[in-house]
Amino acid sequence: MRAWPSVGHIRWGWFLLATAILLLLPLVTDTHTPSVLLIWALFALSLGMMWGYAGLLSFGHAAYFGLGAYTYAVAVINIGESTVPLILSMLVPAAVAAVVGAMMFYGRISDVYMGVITLLVTLILFKFMSATAGDAYVIGGARLGGFNGMPGFHTLNVPGYPEISLFGLPTYYVCAAALLICYLVCRWILARSFGRVLVGIRENEARCELMGYNVPAFKTAIFTVCAAMAGLAGCLFANWAEIVTPRVFSLGQAAEVLIWVIAGGLGTLIGPILGAISLGYVKLLLGEQTLIDNSLILGAVLIIVVLGIPRGVVPALQGLWAAAGRRARGRAGSGQGARRTLGASKPEHT
Amino acid sequence: MDYAGVVTLEILYMIAFLALTSAGLAIVFGMMRVINLAHGEFVMLGGYTSIACYNSGINIYFAMLLVAPVVVGLVGLIVEQSIIRFLYGRMIDTMLATWGLSLLLIGLVTLIFGNTAVSMPAPITGYQLGEYQMGGYNLFIILVTVALLIAMWAVLRFTRAGLIARGAMQGADVVSALGYDPRKVYMYTFSAGAALSGLAGGVLAPLTGLLPSSGGAYIAKAFITVITGGAAVISGTLSSAVILGTVNQLVSFASHPVIGEIAMLALAIILLRLMPTGITGRFFRDGT
Amino acid sequence: MSGVVETQELTMRFGGVTAVDAVNFSLRERELRCLIGPNGAGKSTFFKCITGQYALRPENGRVFIRGADVTGWNTHEIVRLGAGIKTQVPSLMNGLTVEENLWLSARRVHGWAGAGGAVEEITAELQLGEQLRRLVGELSHGERQMVEIGIVLVQRPWLVLLDEPAAGMTGNEVERLVGVIRHINQTASVIVVDHDMEFVRMLGSLVTVFHQGAILLEGPANSVLDDPAVREVYVGNRAA
Fold this sequence. Notes:
The complex is a heterotrimer. By secondary structure, chain A is mainly α. Chain A contains 14 helices and six strands. In chain A, strand 1 (138-139) and strand 2 form a beta hairpin. Chain A starts with 11 loop residues before the first helix and ends in a 19-residue tail after the last helix. Chain B is mostly helical. Chain B has twelve helices and two strands. Chain B has a two-stranded antiparallel sheet. Chains A and B meet through helix 5, helix 10 and helix 12 of A and helix 4, helix 9 and helix 11 of B.
């Protein structure tokens, strides 16, 4: 039988090419900027996986990114060695996501309210962390530092050898490895039945229930996995920036990752990655201090994409490619050719 | 005794604040099922408008209560025609586009006004309540809010425009059946909502220094108030403002303002979980 | 309590309206039953009650499926018991092909290995071969109904519940449907809710007539459909 449309297929050629490029990049350029681009790409991938394939739009995915960053910092200050903190930076966001997710999905709330609740979660974390200045707010030996955040913690080291710090070039390779591995994990999930059911849920949740699938369980599961990936990105970000501030939870951060995913391409894995890398690079070029231009451009990009290319650039290109091929016959009835919305493709309801 | 008076006033003020800043969003959500995430920026624009007018010598009340709503209402008109009207029925897409709009507006305002805070003085001075020094302007805000809610209710109940609006809440086909073009109705509704947001911003301008990013402080609370309140414009917004505002202030007084805010946000999550269509989504049917 | 489906005093009220009024219903193993009645008679509400589409509470009565008390169960829990449910409004994955829709349904019951085979079988039975690779969103209403029936049947349920399966179908499709339902009935118990008198006659099964929330009459299709009381209920008191 025909395989599911581009779900679960790894184009090994492209993958190896990408791996090679990542491997050799340090020969031509400094790795500081590429590292953060890869981190953002991983963050975007985690949202793109959940949104594009399961139809779960979280307005506050930054919550798990931030939780990963903070968990790492707090843990490494208390433990002194980085292996366990790295693992914790994935487990803690996953645990929180499992709770929040179960509450939302078993409660059968609609898409809109999911957007609201996820936004609230990141907002709560932002407000809370911003107010934790002062010596009273400590976890173990780690001061949370309020709005100014937590500076000066141990960065990643070789597992077991706290003295051998992985800074600079090794960090780059860690980030690259993380991205590649997570990408493979996502592809693996999509190739299995689990991934196909997710697509089914995105297409028509009620129908999946009628088939007998336990939809809330599936949604909670993917939500948790994607939170763990975002947490990993957050941990790496903490290492790159060498400081963790509440900005990781901010609405701005939440908006950015959404825009990367949409602009890059919803419904693909490579789209969010490319969106994050390109828009992230643009943001760095513009520089943090000219917030004006940054906001203006991001805002304009978001509006244009929503109005013009709702599925993002990559699928639009893929669509052009496919239209020239076999599927042109199936498209003639305008079923698939009609523009898909970014919200779930089932009829909107309030 | 005086302390009770202070607490009561603070609670009333918080309720008024929530209701005032949410009114515009509630109209747009209740009538059109549009969630405008740039709402905070409309409020911010109202603030900048009244400050700019005040600095040009225009009477302060005129600036706050008339110019600000009109200007932001016009902005709303432009936004509706250029962005919103293409996205009706696509709730999530509207949220995303308006989020983009909010970023755009922040960028524009920063470009024009720069990044330093601007402000204007409050026209009403403080007064004494026992041992406590109270801000008199807060009373003005409460009064404006009450007047606004009554005016909204009256318009919806007694005018032809209100009838059309209530029809629109049931659906676009009702509007057509009444003989009006739904698209025009939506255009005016969105502008009206924007105007109300501008009014809120204008009235609140004297309270703090205004920055291009100030909108962010309003959007979260307004958003929560409206969604928790449900689809009924006035009763929904009012009931959730009362519940959330009271909890916020009580917890703030008991511990710390930040804890109060967090308590309010958490309560909103709980309420949404228990009543997924908002407080008035289930209980009220006639739409007011 | 030897029935496949049994309800005890099943009641459902909406506001002041009693849509289903203390209905005691039972279906035997391998029986085929049609539920008919005019609009508002309560047959669709009854259907939704027994398929978990309404959250039942103790005051609504009890529903048993093969002896298990399923009152208050979710739809997907009832499906997992082995029931196949087709709702009134077709609910399909429009963005996927017919084959993908069928496969997803088959996968839940037959696993990865068995799904492909089950899909092939059902495709042959329902003659869906031509539409396999087409997107469901592009099919006609009748074709979509057939696909939905395929999705239900591919799980090989022992209880099949169909709400208005013939709606929107052409004459040919209806004939095919009748054949399919008779075929399933050899191994499963079936309840069909429908308006279409011709369709019900063609099925020729036992019929339960609903009227104002209660069961008016039960009997073989032909005699029930010709019964004057039933006629009156449908067309009002239009004595010649």
